[in-house]
């Protein structure tokens, strides 16, 4: 009888222990949900949460690191001679200068002539403010000097246009490596943004060639994950010059995660510069614009963003200026890349966008060739307008 009691007690104890364990496990699973307005805290860079940990609002995306093929890479054209070589193409937009010179060289300038000058400047997208300033200065200098000599008039116009374009602006690309709080070097990171159809991905590929021509090690980040063709296109540009491309393994992946991994790959490889391409977006779409801010914030966990380059189509005129204003509010644009500048009389957008944003035009696209992207030089630009 005693043995039976002990057996019963043992069974009871086992059941109670199992129930307690189940109850405890159930409690662990039923943690209270976060409140709707409660945001998870960002991981802190400690030994348990290193800097390469993705923030909680970024999807963990598998990426593919596409190393360049074993085929010998192309050597891009030297950067130094590009503006000279492409002067002829740029001069096609010299309709502004030629029109102004022809008017200013007339025997006597009437009020109708001055109105024609003003109209020429406005049609060239110089903008109302800069046009008014240039008109006032031209009137004063022409009247004071009282000269109609073509060479003298050209020199006056060159000086005034150059002042508008502002040669004092810093147009250099920030491609110098930095040192993080951990004492380790990190690559310069350049984020490239813009609306659809401006030639943004092509510009990133051409910019990679500019940097490779300067003997810099480059990694490309294909953060335009909404178009598989964009990643393919960027990878092709990279392979041509022996540059690694980091891309997602699927369409529609989180672009911030791809950008994060691209910078991480650049750090691991000891690259000098990481170029991050982003999806083209309309400036009036708040959610897409907000995503740019997220990409920049996530990149900054690996390394500070050195440059935010906004790609603008030179032929869009004042609409391009409105685009620039919105992008500047979201991601703090540091430089402008003007594409399709060849063959257009809209070169005045250079003046307008710089004046509005206080941001320099740093690069210009002057054709469809692989090396038809050149650093913007104010003096060369004005000379081409007047050539």
UniProtKB/TrEMBL annotation:
It catalyses: GTP + H2O = GDP + phosphate + H(+). Pfam families: SRP54 (PF00448), SRP54_N (PF02881). The keyword Acyltransferase does not apply. It is a peripheral membrane protein. Residues 360-373 form the SRP54-type proteins GTP-binding domain. Its EC number is 3.6.5.4. It is found in: Cell membrane; Cytoplasm. GO terms for biological process: SRP-dependent cotranslational protein targeting to membrane. The keyword NADP does not apply. Residues 40-56 have a biased composition (Low complexity). GO terms for cellular component: cytoplasm; plasma membrane. Residues 30-58 are annotated as: Disordered. GO terms for molecular function: GTP binding; GTPase activity; signal recognition particle binding. SUPFAM superfamilies: Domain of the SRP/SRP receptor G-proteins (SSF47364), P-loop containing nucleoside triphosphate hydrolases (SSF52540). GTP binds at residues 194-201, 277-281, 339-342. It is an enzyme of class 3 (hydrolase). Keywords: Cell membrane, Cytoplasm, GTP-binding, Hydrolase, Membrane, Nucleotide-binding, Receptor. Part of the signal recognition particle protein translocation system, which is composed of SRP and FtsY. Belongs to the GTP-binding SRP family. FtsY subfamily. Involved in targeting and insertion of nascent membrane proteins into the cytoplasmic membrane. Acts as a receptor for the complex formed by the signal recognition particle (SRP) and the ribosome-nascent chain (RNC). This is Signal recognition particle receptor FtsY. The lineage of its organism: Bacteria, Bacillati, Actinomycetota, Actinomycetes, Micrococcales. The gene is ftsY.
């Amino acid at each position: 009888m005693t043995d039976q009691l002990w057996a019963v007690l043992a069974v009871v104890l086992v059941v109670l222990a199992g129930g307690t364990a189940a109850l405890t496990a159930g409690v662990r699973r039923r943690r209270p949900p976060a409140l709707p307005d409660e945001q998870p805290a960002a991981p802190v860079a400690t030994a348990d949460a290193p800097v390469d940990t993705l923030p909680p609002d970024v999807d963990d995306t598998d990426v593919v690191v596409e190393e360049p093929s074993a085929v010998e890479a192309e050597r891009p054209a030297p950067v130094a001679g590009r503006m000279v070589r492409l002067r002829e193409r740029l001069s096609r937009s010299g309709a502004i200068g030629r029109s102004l010179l022809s008017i200013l060289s007339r025997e006597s300038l009437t009020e109708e002539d001055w109105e024609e000058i003003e109209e020429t400047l406005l049609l060239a997208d110089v903008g109302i403010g800069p046009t008014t300033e240039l008109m006032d200065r031209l009137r004063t200098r022409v009247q004071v000097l009282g000269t109609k000599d073509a060479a003298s008039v050209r020199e006056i116009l060159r000086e005034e246009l150059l002042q508008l374009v502002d040669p004092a602006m810093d147009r250099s690309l920030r491609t110098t490596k930095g040192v993080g709080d951990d004492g380790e070097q990190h690559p310069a990171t350049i984020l490239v943004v813009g609306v659809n159809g401006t030639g943004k991905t092509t510009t990133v590929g051409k910019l990679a060639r500019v940097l490779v021509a300067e003997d810099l090690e480059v990694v490309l980040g294909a953060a335009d994950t909404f178009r598989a063709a964009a990643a393919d296109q960027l990878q092709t540009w990279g392979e041509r010059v022996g540059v690694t491309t980091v891309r997602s393994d699927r369409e529609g992946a989180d672009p911030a995660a791809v950008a994060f991994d691209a910078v991480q790959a650049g750090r691991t490889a000891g690259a000098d510069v990481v170029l991050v391409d982003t999806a083209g977006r309309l400036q009036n779409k708040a959610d897409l614009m907000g995503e740019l801010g997220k990409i920049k914030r996530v990149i900054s966990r690996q390394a500070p963003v050195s440059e935010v380059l906004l790609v603008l189509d030179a032929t869009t005129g004042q609409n391009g200026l409105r685009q620039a204003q919105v992008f500047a509010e979201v991601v703090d644009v540091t430089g402008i890349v003007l594409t399709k500048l060849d063959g257009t009389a809209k070169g005045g957008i250079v003046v307008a966008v710089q004046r509005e944003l206080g941001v320099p035009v740093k690069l210009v696209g002057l054709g469809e060739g692989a090396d038809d992207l050149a650093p913007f030089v104010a003096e060369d630009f004005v000379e081409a307008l007047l050539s």
